[in-house]
Structure to design on (744 residues):
């Protein structure tokens, strides 16, 4: 256990705040007195016209860093405008209410509006014409504002501030899209003669300034010394007991998290449990509701919260947490962002969230307004979890992960070039992220999307390009789940395109707020799943098969094996490679797993189309000389063991979420014709993670060897190379030997 003591506030001297008197009058009426030092520093930068990113802990009052300069500007020049961007509708609504509350206390006519997909058509004209502050999200800016900029002339002519909150959330594909949206926004601002100041806020990450500057393509000032007070927090690492010492299997983190949560809930301590997947959210919610009923208490105050729930249901849960009618909530990282859900006292993490940054964010959900709080990290048997639990000093001392974006990812860049041309003609020599756009523009002309006339490229297609882009995934379409047990076949949920084959295939059990539904039919083309309510004692978990084809090699290097020179052919055993691959994923079957015992009670087949993605990859190939060291019958197990280890050490060195990266072993790759371990970016086109892994290859091999040698099991366990059944009796032994050769 680590005790994090309470810290006092660092306040700004009153003399530094004289010019902010009027905006602060409204905030003071809300119980906000002197500004904290980081707030004063950020406001000073913003008022001086400098772009700024504020990086301080959860609940440190970052919203005042942008609300006060915006209000100051509006009081000074009432025709001014501001644009607020939040990653979710819930955050937009939450922050709109806070800003509206302050502005009404100033007794001035400052109009604050949200503009998103739920905004009625009747209100949109008034927002465009008279909204001083427009609160929206990147999706709506992308599809509903920028393409229709001629309707937003007042906004763009008078735009003084652009606020981007939760900027750490914009990494990977989403962040790469946002960077291109900012390029489009900047073009339109220049067209209308405005030059807004950007104010960004972020949770703690390793490279906040770099990320903000990559997204904005501007110099950004950094404010990262928090002056906010913090309450005392107890951070507890809990490793479930071993239930099979020989195989290294521990008690279920899901069941242990539910048991610990029930301990607090039974004492009426408001608690949040974070789970790593939607399925685990529903399983833990089910367990907690059952425990409450067994304790002769109502299960109604226990709710799940995740993507896929309809907006009205999510808003109801948020209100319930705030007014304390909901005692416990089980969530994916959807509640990791800064939505105001009141003051929770305990945060339980059912498994390491995958990054140091996310762990602090989820832990920060407890004790948001001071007071004593507790965070409990319940480890799984996964190697990364076990590493963190065994090395708490690493967690508390290490830098959080970096936010990585690649705005010039070719598919993303080309999509936004289409949008930019739709909005305004592109000039010859214009820079849009890359210096030379000519090849891209000529390609779009050949595709009959653009036409070159004089010195401009004009959009000529009849298609509306913004609607063809999904900012958050590779595919813009969602599936809906219909409850056929109701007369009107009510829509109970939406499932994103990428998750649908795993969650709502035919014969799947779909769980929603602990209610189980049987999927009778999946209309794949119509993007609709037909579900009926059932009472069953099992859930389903889909299994996918992955095939990888190498498309081209960008870099290749034979790897030396120091210390093994005396062994024949050791010098040509390994090579590291970087290039582009095609990844094909096909869901082939599913397991039926009993609630409570988690035992497998059957299988079923899945028949769905395969998915294909082109992305960047870093891979290690072995020559046939490997069979001089490893018997052919054992090599498959050794490669599986090595892939399991690399899947856990690569995110630590590349500083990314494990879900951003995939690792797959192939005993005989059809293109390389060698045993190969592929590690690839989990995003179409790649975002640069494979390049980083290729660059730190030697460090990866050393860490992999340390992980394998540091585990006390004999033949393999979930905490190192994987279970014995997956890697074989000698899989760990041969994986250790190969890592020794690679590590030098």
């Amino acid at each position: 256990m680590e005790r994090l003591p309470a810290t006092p506030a660092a306040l700004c001297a009153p003399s530094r705040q004289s010019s902010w008197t009027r905006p602060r009058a409204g905030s003071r009426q809300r119980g906000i007195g002197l500004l904290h030092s980081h707030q004063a520093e950020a406001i000073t930068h913003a008022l001086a016209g400098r772009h700024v990113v504020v990086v301080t802990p959860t609940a440190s009052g970052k919203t005042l860093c942008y609300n006060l300069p915006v209000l100051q500007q509006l009081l000074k020049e009432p025709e001014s405008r501001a644009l607020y961007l939040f990653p979710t509708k819930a955050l937009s609504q939450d922050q709109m209410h806070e800003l509206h509350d302050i502005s009404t206390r100033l007794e001035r006519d400052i109009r604050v509006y949200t503009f998103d997909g739920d905004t009625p058509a009747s209100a949109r004209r008034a927002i465009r014409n008279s909204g001083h502050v427009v609160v929206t999200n990147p999706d709506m800016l992308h599809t509903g504002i920028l393409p229709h900029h001629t309707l937003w002339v007042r906004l763009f002519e008078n735009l003084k501030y652009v606020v981007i909150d939760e900027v750490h959330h914009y990494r990977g594909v989403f962040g790469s899209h946002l960077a291109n949206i900012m390029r489009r926004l900047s073009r339109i601002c220049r067209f209308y003669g405005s030059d807004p100041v950007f104010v960004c806020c972020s949770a703690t990450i390793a490279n906040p300034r770099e990320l903000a500057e990559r997204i904005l393509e501007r110099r950004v000032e950094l404010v990262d010394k928090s002056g906010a007070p913090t309450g005392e927090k107890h951070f507890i690492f809990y490793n479930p007991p071993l239930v099979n010492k020989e195989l290294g299997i521990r008690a279920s983190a899901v069941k242990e998290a539910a048991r610990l949560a029930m301990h607090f809930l039974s004492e009426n301590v408001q608690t949040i449990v974070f789970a790593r997947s939607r399925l685990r959210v529903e399983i833990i919610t089910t367990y907690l509701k059952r425990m409450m009923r067994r304790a002769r208490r109502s299960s109604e105050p226990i709710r799940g919260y995740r993507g896929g729930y309809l907006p009205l249901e999510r808003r109801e849960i948020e209100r319930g947490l705030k007014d304390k009618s909901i005692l416990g909530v089980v969530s994916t990282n959807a509640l990791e962002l800064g939505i105001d859900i009141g003051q929770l006292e305990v945060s339980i993490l059912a498994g390491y969230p995958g990054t140091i940054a996310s762990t602090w964010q989820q832990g920060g959900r407890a004790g948001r307004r001071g007071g004593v709080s507790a965070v409990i990290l319940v480890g799984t048997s996964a190697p990364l979890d076990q590493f963190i639990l065994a090395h708490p000093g690493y967690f508390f001392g290490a830098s959080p992960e970096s936010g990585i974006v690649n705005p010039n990812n070719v598919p993303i860049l080309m999509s936004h070039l289409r949008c930019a041309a739709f909005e305004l003609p592109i000039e010859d020599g214009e820079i849009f992220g890359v210096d030379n756009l000519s090849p891209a523009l000529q390609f779009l002309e050949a595709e009959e999307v653009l036409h070159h006339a004089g010195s401009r490229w004009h959009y000529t297609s009849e298609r509306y390009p913004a609607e063809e882009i999904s900012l958050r995934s590779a595919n813009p379409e969602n599936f809906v789940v219909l409850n056929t047990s109701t007369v009107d076949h009510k829509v109970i949920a939406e499932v994103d395109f990428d998750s649908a084959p795993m969650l709502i295939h035919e014969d799947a059990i779909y769980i929603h707020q602990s209610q189980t539904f049987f999927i009778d039919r999946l209309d794949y083309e119509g993007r609709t799943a037909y579900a009926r309510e059932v009472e069953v004692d099992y859930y389903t978990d889909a299994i996918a098969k992955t095939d990888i084809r190498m498309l081209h090699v960008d870099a290749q290097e034979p790897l030396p094996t120091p210390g093994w020179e005396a062994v024949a052919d050791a010098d040509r055993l390994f090579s590291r490679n970087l290039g582009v691959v095609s990844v094909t994923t096909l869901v082939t079957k599913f397991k039926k797993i009993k609630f409570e015992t988690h035992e497998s009670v059957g299988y079923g087949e899945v028949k769905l189309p395969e998915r294909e993605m082109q992305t960047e990859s870093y891979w290690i190939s072995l020559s046939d000389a490997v069979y001089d060291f490893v018997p052919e019958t054992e090599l498959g197990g050794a490669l599986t063991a090595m892939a399991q280890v690399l899947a856990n050490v690569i995110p630590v060195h590349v500083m990314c979420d494990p879900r951003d990266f995939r690792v797959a072993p192939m005993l005989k790759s059809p293109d390389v014709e060698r045993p190969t371990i592929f590690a690839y970016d989990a995003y179409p086109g790649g975002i640069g993670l494979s390049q980083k892994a290729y660059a730190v290859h030697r460090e990866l091999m050393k860490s992999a060897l340390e992980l394998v040698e540091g585990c006390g099991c004999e033949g393999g366990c979930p905490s190192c190379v994987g279970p014995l059944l997956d890697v074989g009796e000698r899989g760990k032994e041969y994986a250790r030997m190969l890592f020794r050769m690679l590590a030098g």
Observations:
- The chain has a mean pLDDT of 89.
- The two ends are 37 Å apart (CA to CA).
- The CA atoms of residues 517 and 532 lie 5 Å apart.
